[in-house]
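Lab manual, section 2.4: Encoding a predicted structure.

Procedure: take the sequence of the chain (413 residues), apply the prediction step described in section 2.3, and record the output as structure tokens. A sample record is shown.
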Amino acid sequence: MTKDNHRQQFPALANKAYFNYGGQGPLPEPALEAIYEAYKRVQLGGPFSGEVGAWVVQEAMLTRRAIASELTVPPETIALTEDVTVGCNIALWGIDWKAGDHLLLSDCEHPGIVASVMELQRRFNIEVSICPLAATLNEGDPVAVIADSLRPNTRLLVISHILWNTGQVLPLAEIVKVCHEPPLTPPWQGGGQEEFSLVQGGLQEELPAKHHKVRVLVDAAQSVGVLPLNLIESGVDFYAFTGHKWWCGPEGLGGLYVSAEALADLHPVFIGWRGIVTDANAKVLGWKPGSQRYEIATSAYPLYAGLRSAIALQHEWGTIEERYAEICRLSKYLWERLSELPDVECLRTSAPEAGLVSFRLSNGMPHKKLVDLLEKQGIMVRTILNPDCVRACVHYFTTEAEIDKLVGAIAIV
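Recorded output:
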């Protein structure tokens, strides 16, 4: 399918240059139609009937399978949620926290996640610290920064796969490895592993004790639908994502991946009939197997068909590897064009690794004013407050003409 033909299936692209995929992707016409047909089927069958009830179960199963195929995981590891934040909160609140436990997060996490962590700290008296990943955008080693920030009492690391503010892609597998298999070397800078004493030659030396695994929770808002993913190979414990950004699915539907090993340590927090098993007398017997135990109750089931349709449409253009390569090509083109402007400074000093391109103005114009001016011209970008910048996102079906329009409009402000 050509890019022009592909773009014609997105009504939102007809009258604007759209660069806000990291906030919400435009819904394609086939997904809109799938949602409408699903809602109509529910009404014709009877919203609360045996027929529709069986249909809902089938729709959920098909949707978990479609998502699992994209993430290269078994379907039973996927819980259907409303969005990224719900998935993150399931993981954050499902851990059996004890006073004095340590949670580590980066300095590039979304305020919604930071606020949740602050409330965990208040309620359970856990220790929270922040590792400086923002400084590794152009130089430095994020894996080493995280390793140096781990402590003997660290229970959980919270990071994003692609940082939402700068677009940096973190090396997830390497980060998970250092959390699951910390090196048996002298104590880490962040506090070290638990130690025991060994008297040798009259001197008392401190040696590391046996380590424990630090679980890893990933905010995958900007990575699902962009990066080729194999979560089994990465070893990640919890991976929360949404369908309404880079997959261009409907808002209100996302998911949470929980690895088979981490499942035993994560208790359901939000609880409803979809996540439990009962007997013939409605007596609660326990949890559903796999990650389905984290699902709650009634949802907008017709959205399931919309998300599957949106995912299938992307495959009509190309494989995930081909789509990712096109995203990188276009983001590099945007980065190069912006770098040519005298009053623009891109945050990255080299080509982006994904579709997020963040930049600053050096002419004194407030970034919010630029965003408002561009929107009046039918060009959609957004501000980021920390760091203070403007963010433009390109997808695989973005065109060079759109990028030229954006850059040309910035050049004359």
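Check your result against the sample. Residues 143 and 175 are 5 Å apart (CA to CA).
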